[in-house]
Specification:
Mean pLDDT: 89
Number of helices: 10
Helix content: over 70%
Shape: globular
Distance between the termini: 66 Å
Strand order of the largest sheet: 1-2
Order of helices and strands: HHHHHHEEHHHH
Largest sheet: 2 strands, antiparallel
Structural class: mainly alpha
Number of domains: 2
Oligomer: single chain
Number of strands: 2
């Protein structure tokens, strides 16, 4: 009989490094959110550049260094245009950058290379345009943090404590229906509480809770999307930059989908501000 230790599966074996990394990232994100302005833009610009770097590195192929640079430049332009609330020009720049990086890649990877630039740039533009949307920019990002973080945390614990059928084992072996539903409803409740604190008594509770539910579900779709990409390329961790996590993309997958959805909805409904379009119906 072998005396080799048995590797734990499931349970909370990975909780320690996940918690320490998460606390550091949450503190940094909240500090940047509170500070706003250039510091906020630089924080998310760094995140977007890291996402593009991980994505291009993950799919591999030709002219990687040039794709890192061109994609990073597009992300930087998206951050600036989001901060200045210029969505039309941001759309043109992001589309041009994505097409340019796609052209740099070898044929089998062109679509994926361009999609990486689009993904990273849309994240950065969306979070910057919402934060710059006064007087509710800070409250909107705080609401999204509450939804996404709450959904992730309660899905993690709900799945491990309740268990049950897997959500989509071909894409994510660990996700369960119980965890996903627990996460979505808990994240939506936390998002509603954050929105109520930020927007005040004029907030319509029923439509806001519905929006929070949709955002929570969208964030879980983002998690599955990122898992499917890593599974496609046979990678567990896209960079090993964050202990206990699967890379910057892994930590931002749910938030990326959530903030892009929120910014899109806010831009469609924008009156006095993009952020106000999410709060007042």
């Amino acid at each position: 009989m072998s005396d080799a230790p048995v590797k734990k599966t499931g349970g909370f074996a990975d909780l320690g490094p996940r918690v320490l990394s998460a606390v550091a990232m949450i503190a940094s994100a909240l500090g940047a959110l509170y500070a706003g302005g250039d510091l906020f833009v630089l924080f998310w610009l760094s995140a977007g550049v890291a996402v593009n770097w991980e994505w291009q590195r993950l799919i591999g192929g030709e002219r990687l260094e040039v794709r890192y640079g061109a994609g990073g430049a597009t992300v930087a332009a998206a951050a600036a245009l989001g901060h200045l609330s210029l969505p039309f020009y941001a759309f043109l720049v992001i589309a041009t950058g994505a097409i340019g990086v796609a052209a740099l890649a070898d044929a089998p990877r062109r679509l994926w290379a361009g999609a990486g630039v689009l993904y990273a740039s849309a994240l950065v533009f969306s979070v910057c345009v919402l934060r710059a949307s006064e007087p509710y920019g800070l409250a909107t990002i705080a609401m999204l943090f509450a939804i996404v973080w709450g959904t992730d945390i309660f899905a993690y614990f709900g799945g491990r404590l309740i268990g049950g059928p897997k959500l989509w084992p071909a894409v994510s072996a660990g996700k369960t229906w119980s965890g996903t539903l627990t996460g979505i409803f808990s994240g939506a409740a936390l998002g509603l509480a954050a929105a109520r604190m930020g927007a005040g008594e004029g907030l319509a509770l029923a439509p806001t809770f519905l929006i929070c539910l949709i955002v929570a579900a969208v964030s879980q779709a983002g998690d599955l999307f990122e898992s499917s990409i890593k599974r496609r390329y046979g990678v567990k961790d896209s960079s090993q930059l964050i202990p206990g996590h699967g890379g910057v993309m892994d930590r931002l997958d749910g938030f990326t989908f959530a903030v892009i959805f929120a910014a899109g909805l806010g831009l469609v409904r924008a009156g006095a501000s993009v952020a106000a379009g999410l709060f007042f119906w």
